[in-house]
Write a structure and sequence with these properties.
Glutaredoxin, five-stranded mixed beta sheet, 5 strands, single chain, alpha/beta, 46% helix
Length: 181
């Protein structure tokens, strides 16, 4: 079930009608991934992002793509303007893994939130040397099932790099600055 209908973010509410079972970032979403023993698909974007809307239309509104996402992942949607803390951490991971960043940001995480594969926009069909989003989903799901040791090694290396660079992974809580506490 898609849980974005009650989100405070207008960007997240734009995705409330998607057939993807989107959730917001919280402890329950992480726990659900642990219970199901599946990776997290984290999509970070913002309302004015052109490519976020393109990917939403091409992939997140597509019933077959959504079914693949729902079967193999816990799907979390984040508004970078509401959660700059998450955006910063996972953008660092994306840049470290790919050499560039941008939005939409698409990260695949362990149930503990450790990134093991990141990218930005993935098209709905292979083009310009990029795989389609469904090819990425299928490959990640297969790798999760058959090469967990490799996934854990990639996630461990990413977490080590993030710790060295920015202090590690965020937890499920919202961190208020001292001016808001």
């Amino acid at each position: 079930m898609n849980r974005l209908g009650e989100a405070t973010s207008p960007y997240l509410r734009q995705h409330a009608g998607n057939p993807v079972h989107w959730r917001e970032w919280d402890a329950d979403a992480l726990a659900r991934a642990r219970e199901r023993d599946v990776p997290i698909l984290l999509s970070i974007g913002y309302a004015a992002c052109h490519w976020c809307h393109v990917m939403a239309h091409e992939s997140f509104e597509d019933a077959a793509t959504a079914a693949l996402m729902n079967e193999h992942f816990v799907n979390i949607k984040v508004d970078r303007e509401e959660r700059p803390d998450l955006d910063a951490v996972y953008m660092n991971a994306t840049v470290a893994m790919t050499g560039h960043g941008g939005w939409p940001m698409t990260c695949f995480l362990t149930p503990e939130g450790a990134p093991f594969y990141c990218g930005t926009y993935f098209p709905n069909a292979p083009r310009h040397g990029m795989p389609s989003f469904t090819q990425v989903l299928t490959a990640i799901a297969e790798t999760w099932r058959t090469r967990r040791t490799d996934v854990d090694a990639a996630a461990g290396a990413a977490v080590d790099a993030l710790r060295a660079q920015a202090g590690g992974l965020p937890d499920a809580q919202v961190h208020l600055g001292p001016e808001l506490a």
